[in-house]
């Protein structure tokens, strides 16, 4: 789609933060364009069609969650949210509005670069992921509804399978509890979110090498879950 | 003395009234006498009757009787034939006398009844006005003192004094300092009885000397708000029936006013609390944002420099790394302080949800081992732990703090373990490390704010970690304690195991 190096749009009102975020992006061989406000950010996003948006949630002119909602109307570009707020509900609102991942301020450059790398890789792979997925010693063939671990077939209940499909088809993304419950159990079951936790526990028992130290089906405490196909390299 | 003076003046007035009656009759005789040849006898009788009527109207019964006698005597002596001869035996004059007497008595009776009614109406009007004034004053009262003053003013018009006892939230009666006197034990008993029973209680008549004679409960819509203890201002006052009713009306006014004050006070307190909480929360939020932004810049810029290790002189890269680590440490301290402030605030909501405990163990380990990759933690979770109802973010915080402490204080390579098991109605979680122990005798204070073990200034920290753990665990209804066990240190905390919601698991295929 884009033969040039990928373009990242940084929407952040604090110039010093913009500066090192852009520098980190360039280290990931991205081109970076900068916006200091939501209005300018939306304008640039429309004109330049970036491959990635890094968005501060606390913009002066507009709520970051509104920004994502508006952007999502016409763009599927991956959005990485930067939040200075420690309250989980803000991040959940941003993720439910369509953000893909988040970082809580302050964050290290290594962390930022790892997230950016993962998001760009996902964007490249997007569309041709196919029916075959693999992580750890697990292989899943979604076309034939078969899950194997170390070569042996693993039996999953229909709900467990539905949950696994959601995780596999959204690699690296933070999936909120509400999103997963809607997809697996259907909307209207959000009060029963303990089901989700119990089923994630069961999937870990069946698929993770050490269920108490999951390496692929990770908990984002207070927010939801993230499926990580490769173990993070930091 | 004054009583004697009053008696004397009343006596003088009575004598004057009788004198006036005599004068009136004599005057009538004097007026009629010159006309005796022109008037018929019945006409003259009518004149005397008029005199008796007037005397009865203005001077009362006694003078009217005297006037009747005197009129008959004068008429008989001067006008009836033969003149100048007093003769009462005549049946005709007896009738005249009886009629005059009857007119006098009936008139006096009617007049006195009318006067009594007027007095009664006036008294009632005064009563209503006083009650109205009391109602107006009480309705406008801004505090208990003003209610008491209005009540006392009203009572003093009836020779009574009053004490107001306000019932607190714990139903204990508090004597208001503006009362007429400090209540004695017997009176307090009377007041307590009135408050408890919510009914009028008269005091023992044997303790009357200046003490409260009756206690009226102040019954409001929701509860008894207090007691009005009524005291006589002098020894003669008794609580007559109409007094009783009037004081009862006053008591219900005071009760309404106390209830109104109570709700007004509550509303004001709630408003202040809400405003307080809003202010605290907005200060915390903006402090958190304003401090995190420069810290983010500091961490980010220093980290950018440190990452360019290859292109920088070695000591510059090292310096950048130190700046980054210190900024991170400062952020940790800031987060701890803000979290502590939030946890201490009354409205800090727990977002408790049903979840398996191993979920939070996994995420805590990931966070803790990220910070200290060279450390390894042994996990020992009992199989089949029930779902627990807790705030995952906060309990993750507890586990991270405890692991962090174990990493900081245990020697490198020492065994660190995290275990959880169910014991009766609790989940018991322990984080233990081999090697170093808590300083003896300083274990309990470690859970207080800013308290750290002795001689450890070389280890970073502000003494907030365990205090935060304690606040979080206690907010969940659990308990936390630390102890030394054979050659190591242990922190154990509990979380209550409640009845989890049912989970219908599908059948395995």
Explain this structure to me?
The complex is a heterodimer of chains A (234) and B (509). In chain A, the strands form 3 sheets. Chain A has a 5-stranded parallel beta sheet with strand order 2-1-3-4-5, sandwiched between helices. A 4-stranded antiparallel beta sheet of chain A has the order 6-7-8-9, with no helix packed on it. Chain A is an alpha/beta fold. Chain A is 41% helix and 21% strand. Chain A has helices at residues 15-27, 38-48, 64-74, 88-97, 109-125, 158-169, 177-184, 193-207; strands spanning 7-11, 31-35, 52-56, 79-83, 101-104, 132-135, 138-141, 146-149, 152-153, 174-176, 217-220, 224-227. Chain A is built from 8 helices and 12 strands. In chain B, the strands form 3 sheets. A 5-stranded antiparallel beta sheet of chain B has the order 2-1-5-4-3, with helices on both faces. In chain B, strand 11 (480-485) and strand 12 form a beta hairpin. The chains are: A alpha/beta (234), B alpha+beta (509).
Major beta-sheet overview of chain B: 5 strands, antiparallel
N-to-C SSE string of chain B, H for helix and E for strand: HHHHHEEHEEEHHEHEEHEEHEE
Strand pairing plus helix content of chain B: what structural class? alpha+beta
| C-alpha termini separation of chain A | 29 Å
Walk across the major sheet of chain B and give the strand order. Answer: 2-1-5-4-3
Write a brief structural summary.
The complex is a heterodimer of chains A (234) and B (509). By secondary structure, chain A is of the alpha/beta class. Chain A has helices at residues 15-27, 38-48, 64-74, 88-97, 109-125, 158-169, 177-184, 193-207, and strands at residues 7-11, 31-35, 52-56, 79-83, 101-104, 132-135, 138-141, 146-149, 152-153, 174-176, 217-220, 224-227.
């Amino acid at each position: 789609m884009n033969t040039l190096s990928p373009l990242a749009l940084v929407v952040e009102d604090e110039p010093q933060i913009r500066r090192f975020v852009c520098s980190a992006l360039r280290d990931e061989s991205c081109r970076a364009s900068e916006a200091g406000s939501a209005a300018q950010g939306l304008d640039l996003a429309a004109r330049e069609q970036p491959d990635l948006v890094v968005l501060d949630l606390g913009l002066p002119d507009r709520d970051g969650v509104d920004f994502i909602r508006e952007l999502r109307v016409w763009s599927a570009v991956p959005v990485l949210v930067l939040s200075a707020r420690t309250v989980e509900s803000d991040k959940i609102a941003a993720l439910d509005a369509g953000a893909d991942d988040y970082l809580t301020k302050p964050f290290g450059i290594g962390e930022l670069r790892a997230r950016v790398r993962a998001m760009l890789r996902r964007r490249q792979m997007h569309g041709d992921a196919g029916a075959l997925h693999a992580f750890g010693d697990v292989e899943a063939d979604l076309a034939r509804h078969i899950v194997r671990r170390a070569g042996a077939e693993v039996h999953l209940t229909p709900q467990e399978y539905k949950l696994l499909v959601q995780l596999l088809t959204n690699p690296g993304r933070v999936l909120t509890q509400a999103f997963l419950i809607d997809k697996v159990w259907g909307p209207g079951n959000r009060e029963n979110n303990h089901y989700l936790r119990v089923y994630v526990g069961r999937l870990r028992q069946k698929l993770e090498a050490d269920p108490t130290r999951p390496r692929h089906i990770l908990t984002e405490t207070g927010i939801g879950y993230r499926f990580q196909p490769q173990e993070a390299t930091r | 003395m004054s009583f004697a003076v009053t008696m004397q003046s009343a006596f003088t007035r009575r004598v004057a009234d009788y004198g006036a009656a005599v004068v009136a009759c004599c005057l009538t005789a004097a007026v009629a006498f010159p006309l005796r040849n022109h008037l018929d006898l019945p006409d003259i009788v009518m004149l005397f009757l008029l005199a008796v009527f007037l005397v009865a109207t203005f001077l009362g019964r006694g003078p009217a009787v005297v006037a009747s006698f005197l009129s008959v005597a004068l008429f008989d002596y001067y006008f009836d034939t033969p003149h100048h001869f007093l003769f009462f035996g005549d049946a005709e004059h007896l009738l005249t006398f009886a009629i005059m007497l009857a007119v006098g008595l009936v008139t006096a009776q009617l007049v006195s009844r009318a006067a009594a009614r007027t007095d009664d109406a006036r008294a009632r009007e005064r009563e209503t006005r006083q009650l109205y004034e009391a109602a107006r004053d009480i309705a406008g009262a801004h505090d208990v003192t003003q209610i008491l003053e209005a009540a006392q003013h009203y009572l003093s018009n009836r020779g009574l004094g009053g004490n107001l006892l306000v019932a607190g939230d714990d139903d204990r009666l508090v004597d208001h300092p503006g009362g007429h006197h400090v209540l004695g034990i017997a009176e307090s008993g009377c007041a307590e009885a009135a408050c408890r029973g919510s009914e009028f209680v008269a005091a023992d008549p044997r303790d009357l000397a200046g003490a409260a004679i009756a206690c009226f409960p102040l019954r409001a819509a929701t509860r008894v708000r207090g007691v009005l203890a009524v005291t006589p201002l002098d020894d003669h006052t008794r609580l007559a029936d109409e007094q009783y009713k009037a004081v009862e009306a006053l008591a219900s006014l005071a009760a309404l006013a106390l209830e109104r004050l109570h709700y007004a006070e509550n509303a004001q307190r709630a408003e202040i609390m809400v405003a307080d909480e809003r202010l605290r929360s907005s200060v915390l939020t903006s402090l958190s944002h304003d401090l995190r932004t420069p810290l983010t810049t500091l961490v980010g810029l220093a980290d950018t420099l440190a990452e360019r290790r290859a292109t920088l002189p070695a000591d510059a890269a090292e310096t950048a790394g130190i700046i980054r680590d210190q900024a991170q440490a400062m952020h940790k301290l800031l987060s701890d302080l803000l979290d502590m402030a939030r946890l201490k605030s009354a409205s800090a909501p727990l977002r408790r949800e049903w979840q398996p405990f191993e979920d939070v163990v996994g995420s805590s380990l990931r966070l803790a081992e990220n910070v200290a990759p060279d450390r390894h933690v042994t996990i020992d979770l009992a199989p089949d732990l029930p779902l627990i109802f807790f705030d995952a973010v906060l309990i993750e915080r507890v586990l991270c703090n405890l692991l962090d402490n174990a990493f900081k204080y245990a020697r490198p390579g020492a065994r660190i373990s995290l275990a959880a098991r169910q014991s009766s109605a609790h989940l018991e979680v322990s984080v233990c490390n081999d090697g170093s122990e808590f300083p003896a005798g300083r274990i309990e204070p470690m859970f207080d704010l800013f308290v750290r073990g002795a001689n450890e200034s070389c280890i970073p920290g502000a003494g907030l970690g365990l205090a935060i753990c304690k606040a979080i665990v206690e907010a969940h209804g659990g308990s936390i304690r630390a102890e030394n066990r054979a050659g190591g240190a242990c922190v154990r905390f509990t979380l209550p195991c409640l009845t989890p919601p049912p989970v219908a698991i599908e059948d395995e295929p």
